[in-house]
Specification:
single chain; 18 helices; 0% strand; globular
Amino acid sequence: MDTAAKQSPPPVDAPGSAAYRNLIMATIGFTLTFWAWNLIAPMSGDYKERLGLSSFQQSLLVAVPVLVGSLGRIPVGALTDKFGARLMFPLTSALTILPVLLLIPAKNSYGAMLAVGFLLGVGGTTFAIGIPLVNSWFPPAKRGLALGVFGMGMGGVALSGYFTPRIAKHGDNLPVLVVAAALVVYAALAGLLINDHPGRKVPTDSLAHRLGSAGRLRVTWELSALYAIGFGGIVAFGVYLPTYLKTWYELTPTDAGTKAAGFALVTVIFRPIGGWLSDRVHPAVVTSVALGVAALMAIVQAFDPRLDPTGTVALLVMAAGLGTASGSVFALVSQVTPQAKVGSVTGIVGAMGGLGGFLPPLVMGAIYSAKDSYSIGFMLLSDLALAGCVYAYGRMRNVRRDE
């Protein structure tokens, strides 16, 4: 018998080396561009002092790149459907280099910093490039974990928060130069090593039509709502947790920052766990349980427990729930969204997740100013998470891709 005939074909659900190469490159690119996207926030205190900014002006300076990056995912996701990640990843990474470098001449002008912050939002759009790329290379049985691993690139924001001010101690412009150099190297490597899947379907209709088509899908807005709760909760706590810990528990800025970094680390770790679980259990069930856990911990925190240990445990378990939900929602995206529309839907869902993180801090701050308590804010969070828990289990388990 011929030797070749004895060899069994590789299993259909086994991704090859090209799949893992693209996953690694996408995750690295996501991490680097998110670091660039968040370059202003860690240094905002210095900008406030240098430029004599009010608290509102400082908040606006930090918010501009985040808002632009979140909204920019909508067109970038649709463009990725059309032109592929092979073009979009190196192009977007290269375009991010310019605003990064412009931070140097702009640092002495508030207006210039706002303009550069607007351009820096480009770095926050790569999420909508990586999801359809990874989704196309991995079979359904492996897709949840792969998307979760890619999602760990959101840790670039945490890396920026930790390393940027420390690098800046050796020179004001050094963080900018380091990130710009890393992006140059990455853009070159991405152009060589990232490939679109050979079976990728290229849409022939216009950008506006594809966005409109994605927007008309009911699942787009259902997924957006779930992601706004999960990832929006992560963004909200990333922005507001240090303030909450300093105000309510009277921690020093260093201690508050350390605990907030721990919260962020847990969300990053649990995102791929959410994807891995979604490969074994329906992602809607994983999302439901994860949001249920987050809701329960929000209720615990609403009763203002002592920080050590009850409050710390409640916040870290809440982080695990929100991180898990963020990973499982995008496993759900891959199950219920037509392949040719994954980029467009991802753009909208990702945008809503980013935007979903900015209302809660405003609400928490307003409630504390009015009531001198955060309890109502945590109860509102628990209500939202519980609503997502019920909806994910009751509705999203039964959604099929042809809807």
